[in-house]
Amino acid sequence: MLRSSRRGPMSVSLLVSTGSLGAALGAVLVGRRLLWSGAVLVGRSLPLGAVVGRRVPLGAALGAAVGGGRRGAGAGAGADDVFLQRQRQQRPPGVCPSRSIIDLSYSSHFMDLGGSSIPSTMQRLLVTALSPRFGEAVSLQRDVPVPMPGDAELLVRNRFVGINASDINFSAGRYDPALKPPFECGFEGIGEVVGLGLSASAHHTVGEAVAYFSDGAFAEYTVVPAKKAVAVPSVKPEFLTLLLSGATAYIALKRLGELAEGETVLVTAAAGGTGQFAVQLAKRAGCHVIGTCSTDEKAGFLKSLGCDRPVNYAREDLGQALRREYPRGLDVVYESVGGTVFDLAVNSLATGGRLIVIGFISGYRSASGIAPVKGGTLPVKLLQKSASVRGFFLPHFARDYKEAVGSLMQMAARGELVCEVDCGDLAPEGRFLGLESVFRAVDHLYAGKNLGKVVVEVAPARRRAAVPVSKL
Question: Where on the phi/psi map is residue 102: left (φ > 0), alpha (ψ -120 to 50), or beta?
Answer without folding.
Answer: beta
